[in-house]
Amino acid sequence: MPTKALHFSDVEKKAILSTAYEVVLADGSIHPTEVAAIKKLIASMDLTNSLAKEAQEMSMDEALVPLNNMDYDKKKVLAKILDDIAMADEVLHENEMELIIDTFKNIGIGSETE
After folding, report:
1. Which of 1, 4, 34, 109 is the most exposed place for a label (fewest CB within 10 A)?
2. Backbone angles phi, psi at 75, to 5 degrees
3. Is the separation of the CB atoms in 75 and 15 below 8 Å?
4. pTM of the predicted model, to two decimals?
5. What domains does the chain contain, in order, with CATH numbers?
């Protein structure tokens, strides 16, 4: 997952991880490959255990604020991350797709997804 090239703030990292958690949960099941993808994301962002825990407790509404404030290049990385997470189990569930599209619309990149 391409997070090394750009510098994300801690609040951006938490928001990204929080949204990734929501994508994993969107289809109602947690596949081992999704867990592995989340662990890979945490490692690639150099997230501490405490920040990862805070991300789990962050609401989607809280996550949208820093995601919306990110520049377009960071949002493109977010799109790739969420796609990777959604496809980790090799099935793109309708709920995952809807959550990702809604997220994109809420942070100002919705037009590229339609």
Report:
1. 4
2. -65, -35
3. no
4. 0.88
5. 10-109 (1.10.3680.10)
